[in-house]
Amino acid sequence: MFQRLAESFLAAGALCLASAAHARAVAYRGATIYPITGGVVENGTLVVEGGRIVAVGADAKVPAGAEVVDLSGKVVMPGIVDSHAHYGNVPIPMVPANQDGNEGSGPIQPDLSAIDAIDPDDPGLAFARAGGITTANIMPGSGNVMGGQTAYVKLRGRTVEEMLVRKDGISGGMKMANGENPKRVYGSRGEAPVTRMAEMSLARKIFVKAQEYRKMWESYRANPKGDAPARDLGLEAIGEILDGKRIVHHHTHRADDAIRAMDLAREFHFRIVLHHVTEGWKIAAEIARRKVPCSIIVIDSPGGKHEAADFKFETGGILERAGAKVAIHTDYWINDARFILREAALAVQHGMSEAEALRALTLNGAEMLDLGSRVGSLEPGKDADFIVLSGHPFSVYTHVLQTYIEGEKVFDRSQPRDLRYSTGGFAVWNRYPSAKGGGQ
Amino acid sequence: MSAPVRALATIALLAAAPASAETLVVRAETLYTMGTAGTISDGAVVIRDGKVAAVGKAGSFPIPPGAREIRGKVAAPGLIDAHTVLGLSGLFNDQADQDASEKTGPVQPDLRAQDGFNPEEGLLRFALEHGTTTVLTGPGSANLVGGQAAIYKTDAALGDAMLVKAGAAMIYHLGESSKATYAEKRKAPTTRMAEAALIRKSFQEAMTYEAKKKANAAKREKERKPLETDAAAEAVLKVLHGEMPAMITANRESDIDTALRLVREFKLTAWLAGAADGYLARERIKASGLPVLVGPVMERPGALEMKNVSLENAALLVAAGVPVAFQTGEEGYVPKSRAILWDAAIAAANGLGAERTLRALTADAAKILGIADRVGSLSPGKDGDVLVTDADPFEYRTHVTAVLCGGRVSFERR
């Protein structure tokens, strides 16, 4: 109850702030616009008011009195949705003092939340904005079978509360992992899970326990006599998974591990998004048949561990052609948040269509976070989250020039401090040499 | 050489021989020779017996009959990764395939890359398929003095001919990495002070050894006593005598200054590697005359000493007049490696420009590493190492369509 109240209070506050900042409409004109849910618009106009998109298109009507911003020669697309990231909860510098991603004290941690570890001052969040990311799923690490609740955030705000994006009272999913990582963390201490068998066993046990817990409460509510049962916040979070309100974001690499994760979801009837899916190219038809969305990573080379050795740049294209829904994520810091467009471009180099790669950076990821109605495309009524690029989204020579969240500019490459998040050198921006040709 | 090894070597030679015998012609709309022939539009390069036989405008010289032609939009010399752990630090990142870091002592000058190098390593093949034909590889970053690097061609089919140069550099690492290795073991170095002190000590001990060896040589021979050759000291002496360059990885500005101090003190022939803060120390580096092996360009600024790393580092160093090559360095987890083509592309797009970046990856790298007589340009007599692409080599959506290494077609995109 308190949470709901706080939520509506915050939402009202945020709206007041937003409307104060954007009393006036702004029309961004002249850019090549990629709305995602429609064809490319040349010389298009994007109209923003009150933090929302009010019109988009070649002949979008510009309201009287609107401020007009010329973006001729530039490219506009929705803010990127990074469906799997660790900026904020594994801040720079990545020293043990800052490691708040993996709670290594036990393999099942449903009551933990990434919300309680996010540092809004992490430079990693500024890198993400410089890379064009506006919405992210910040997750606990993959060292646990169930690592904790994830946080769906916009990359703005002074506090984590201001960053959170809530829908129906839920502001995140649940991180799960199988394969090598939990085995490595606990196996090295001689604790379970030492094998994949124990990983599955631990996962099943906690879901069964959550089912029983839910039944117990149902029975108490039906007949509330005597003392109420003791509450277990972790099992309640899993209850939200069983109710279909909280999505399981499941780290998985090897094909058999991906199948096992999907089987678990079928066994307990929960919604799942597969993450990384390194060997997805081997089982693309099966993934498509089961209609399980895949949030994939495009890394710079195969390897680093056995389960990543069969990595292929072709995975995105193969999943696309099989009919599976694909998003592309950074898994920052595995991939630098400034280079998420590059990941999609490399998927295109290896056979993914440009249109689907753009969707994989935006709307598909948003849908995997249940946020498809708010972000991920440029449509009237949606949040005014968009980025301005200097050229084609998939050219190495293109720079992200500006990043907007709900109409507010949160990154501007023409500002010296912002520029040094884009190029690097943010901590020495005031003694950074002037770069010839390094600009826009 | 044992009998089976000798037999294998013979088989490798036999296997390589027919491929090298094939005469190849690479024809490209734009041919960057990086040599005296400059950049040629509609250029051709003829490769025979593993070497460049002719280069010029297509049609300006006879193509040998029966030559196999490979066409592309762009062709350039095969790329040089100036510092990696390829072949020693394997794909699986498992103890079983990790032979780069001998974590039993911080000073290991007698270790040699050749004794850990696996020609069949998967990541080496990955690099080859992305245009890397030559690598300087060797011991990793765990130790202060890692050992001796070697320069290799990347195509395992070349057999013994993969080795271009042994003892190509002595590997030094200043800063966080060796501290991290030995702090755990409560052994020196646990501070930067001890790092510099241990390097100085290694040089002093080698000099003492040399003096003693000279003084005792006649006596020992007379007394028929063994010379007590110290392989580690002998290797360090090569560095002191300028016969083997010191490759010093230093990222934080203060570590770069420590490197420059040691170079001055011991009058070393040296290269700086990594050099994340290089752009901040560019005037001092320029004054030192040292070249810099920049990279990886996409290094993530996670470690404290990497905090200031900039995508513009190479551009700013070049603008200051510092000779620059690129390295992919060492990655510890995922991604386990990087393609130098893709990594340097980020420098190209951040101030350095495509053509200048290509030169750093080829001719400039060859000059810095001392192998310009073999690689780095497409001029008659040079190795038949060619990168062929279907557009601007640095663009994300461009494909490497063929790679020639040592005069063989090592890779062709289907």
Q: What features would you describe in this structure?
A:
The complex is a heterodimer of chains A (440) and B (414). With 440 residues, chain A is α/β, with parallel strands linked by helices. Chain A starts with a helix and ends in an 18-residue tail after the last helix. In chain A, strands 1, 2, 3, 4, 5, 15, 16 and 17 form an eight-stranded mixed β-sheet that branches. With 414 residues, chain B is α/β, with parallel strands linked by helices. Chain B contains eleven helices and 15 strands. In chain B, the strands form two sheets. An eight-stranded mixed β-sheet of chain B has the order 5-6-7-8-9-10-11-12, with helices on both faces. A seven-stranded mixed β-sheet of chain B has the order 3-2-1-4-13-14-15. In chain B, strand 1 and strand 2 form a beta hairpin. In chain B, helix 4 crosses helix 5 and helix 8 crosses helix 9. Chain B is globular and about 65 Å long. The two termini of chain B are 39 Å apart.
- The coarse silhouette of chain B is globular
Low-confidence stretches of chain B: 1-19
Report the C-alpha radius of gyration of chain B, rounded. Answer: 22 Å
- Main sheet record of chain A: 8 strands, mixed
Tell me what portion of residues of chain B adopts beta-strand conformation.
Answer: 15-25%
Oligomeric state, counting identical vs distinct chains: heterodimer
Major sheet characteristics of chain B: 8 strands, mixed
- SSE class of chain A: alpha/beta
Count the DSSP helices of chain A: 13
Q: Trace the largest sheet of chain B across and list its strands.
A: 5-6-7-8-9-10-11-12
Question: Which helices and strands appear, and what pairs or packs with what?
Answer:
The complex is a heterodimer of chains A (440) and B (414).
Chain A: H1 2-21, E1 26-33, E2 41-49, E3 52-57, E4 67-70, E5 75-78, E6 80-85, H2 123-130, E7 133-138, E8 146-149, E9 151-154, H3 160-163, E10 174-177, H4 180-187, H5 196-222, H6 233-242, E11 248-252, H7 255-267, E12 272-276, H8 284-289, E13 294-297, H9 315-322, E14 326-329, H10 340-349, H11 354-361, H12 363-368, E15 386-389, E16 400-405, E17 408-412, H13 416-422
Parallel strand pairs in A: 1-4, 1-5, 6-7, 10-11, 11-12, 12-13, 13-14
Antiparallel strand pairs in A: 1-2, 2-3, 5-15, 7-9, 8-10, 15-16, 16-17
Helix pairs in contact in A: 2-13, 5-6, 10-11
Chain B: H1 3-21, E1 24-32, E2 39-48, E3 51-57, E4 68-77, E5 79-84, H2 122-129, E6 132-137, E7 145-153, E8 163-173, H3 176-184, H4 192-222, H5 231-240, E9 246-250, H6 253-265, E10 270-274, H7 282-288, E11 292-294, H8 313-319, E12 324-326, H9 340-352, H10 354-361, H11 363-369, E13 386-389, E14 400-405, E15 408-412
Parallel strand pairs in B: 1-4, 5-6, 8-9, 9-10, 10-11, 11-12
Antiparallel strand pairs in B: 1-2, 2-3, 4-13, 6-7, 7-8, 13-14, 14-15
Helix pairs in contact in B: 4-5, 8-9, 9-10, 10-11
